[in-house]
Write a structure and sequence with these properties.
Blueprint (H helix, E strand, L loop, with lengths): L9 E6 L1 H6 L11 E4 L1 H9 L6 H17 L4 H6 L1 E4 L9 E8 L17 H15 L3 E6 L3 H9 L4 E2 L17 E3 L4 H5 L4 E5 L2 E6 L12 E4 L5 E8 L4 E5 L18 H10 L6 E6 L5 H15 L5 E6 L15 H5 L4 H10 L5 H14 L1 E3 L13 E6 L6 H8 L7 E6 L15 H9 L5 E6 L6 H9 L1
Helix pairs in contact: 8-9, 9-11, 13-14
């Protein structure tokens, strides 16, 4: 939110309510610039403070921040603007050069006549128009996550912006894919001092060269053509990197709970899902790329066959795509059942056993006894020990919700996040601000995490054509 080139005036940001609902720390993220809070914003915060939702929690936190700024201040000090503490940097004793102004007098008279009704949005626009007249030394900018309000602001001559401080990347195309194609001459430049060895049935290479500078731990490397090669970066040092040949899960012999990888990205995904040294795995991909099926198959193999984990815990955010179906009867797991259609669909694939209907029913009962379905609403304060946690539809989570979930992991627990950032249903959340994008970007340097973006759909020719044509 830096001022444009040639803009010498100090910027004054008028905050909309939804910015504080989305990120309470937005108060401290405008550096040296000034903030203005219309009175209607405080009213809307008061209306949304009750409840156990994420929005209500953010509103209460924003109110506490505002109280700490205003506490003990006289009316004259508030009118002159209060210095904003730099809580965002953790230095609560220091202050920034920016100040926060509150609306202390009516500004409704500046509302254009062609804006019908007296809505909160129009009150915010009226305040912004009044500030343009009363504070000409400032460049007044409205900050809102409401697209319609930004359109209205443009129509009445008020510059507006989206809130970008929580944006992980400038463009989702810059998101780490987890895989890198090696050039054909890779071994010519990186194989001169190469060492190779085998350990516990796995083949390792120690390579040096310029390419390793851009690698991350557990990044997937591949080479196409006659010399097909697939490997994962296991360790990266200052002058060399250790890579390991990837296991081939495409063959029936290496099938995971009856599931074989159908393409290169799925093979890399199974390599990370089946590795107990990788505690955190993120799988991105469009519908039909096999995210849930691979995660479930790897989980069942490690829970029932290898006994690495006690059980599978599956959860997802409950955001309806259409109209909400209202309250649901039953226990927590029964209430979550409509949201877990993906789990049931994939269990049908994983339970195609011999023995007819009776054998299949017995297998389903066995699997369900080792799979727990939990709601996100009851995760806070819990600790999961030796569990295999699958977070489905993770693109609908905010960065704060994602942190709350991942920090529930106790010793011996593995967390797998699945999602498609092109299908976000949560209001005010975008591809670049999604919690899934946030964790992919933040976890990529950690040696116990892995990420891969699945590219090819493997459902049917009908689904593949629909994905391309519709």
């Amino acid at each position: 939110m830096n001022p444009p080139v040639g803009e010498s005036r100090k910027r004054l940001f008028v905050l909309d309510t939804n910015v504080l609902m989305h990120d309470p720390t937005a108060l401290f993220r405008f550096a040296e610039h000034d903030l203005f809070l219309p009175m209607v914003v405080l009213e809307e915060l008061d209306h949304h403070k009750k409840g156990m939702s994420e929005v209500a929690s953010n509103v209460r936190q924003a109110s506490r921040f505002l109280d700490s700024i205003v506490k003990g201040r006289r009316k004259a000090e508030i009118d002159a603007g209060l210095p904003i503490p730099s809580f965002a940097s953790g230095e609560s004793g220091k202050t920034t050069t920016g100040r926060i102004f509150f609306q202390t007098r009516s500004m409704i008279g500046h509302l254009p006549e062609h804006l019908p009704g007296n809505t909160p949005d129009h009150s915010i626009l009226a305040a912004a128009l009044a500030l343009q007249e009363k504070m000409p030394e400032h460049h007044v900018v409205l900050v809102s996550k409401d697209i319609n309000l930004r359109i209205k602001a443009a129509l009445v001559g008020v510059p507006s912006e989206d809130y970008h401080s929580d944006q992980v990347l400038d463009d989702v195309d810059l998101l780490y894919s987890g895989a890198e194609s090696l050039p054909e001459d890779f071994w010519e430049h990186h194989g001169k001092e190469m060492e190779s060895w085998q350990e516990s049935g796995h083949t390792f290479y120690r390579v040096t060269g310029p390419a390793i500078e851009s690698w991350y731990p557990n990044q997937c490397l591949y080479m196409e053509g006659d010399t097909a090669f697939e490997a994962l970066v296991r360790r990266k040092e200052a002058d060399h990197a250790v890579i390991e040949l990837a296991e081939d899960y495409r063959t029936a012999k290496r099938a995971v709970w009856g599931i074989r990888a159908r393409n290169r990205e799925q093979n890399f995904a199974l390599n990370m899902l089946m590795d107990p040294e990788i505690d955190f795995v993120t799988l991105l991909g469009a519908a039909g790329t096999g995210k849930t099926l691979l995660a479930l198959a790897a989980g069942l193999a490690q829970v029932l066959d290898k006994n690495l984990y006690k059980e599978i815990v599956m959860t997802r955010v409950t955001v309806p795509v259409g109209e909400d179906i209202g309250f649901l009867p039953g226990t927590e797991e029964e209430k979550m059942t409509p949201w877990m259609g993906a789990l049931m669909d994939n269990l049908e694939v994983l339970t195609q056993t011999e023995g007819g209907d009776w054998g299949r029913a017995a297998t389903v009962d066995l699997l369900r006894s080792r799979i727990r379905i939990h709601s996100l609403n009851f995760m806070r304060g819990r600790t999961f020990l030796n569990k295999y946690i699958i977070i489905d539809e993770a693109q609908n989570l905010t960065a704060k919700q994602m942190k709350t979930l991942i920090t529930r992991a106790g010793p011996g627990t593995k967390v797998v996040c699945l999602g498609n950032v092109a299908q976000i249903d949560t209001p005010y959340l975008t591809e670049t601000t999604s919690g899934l994008t946030y964790v992919v970007d933040r976890f990529k340097p950690w040696r116990h995490s892995g990420h891969i973006t699945l590219l090819r759909g493997e459902r049917s020719r009908l689904a593949d054509f629909a994905s391309d044509a519709l």
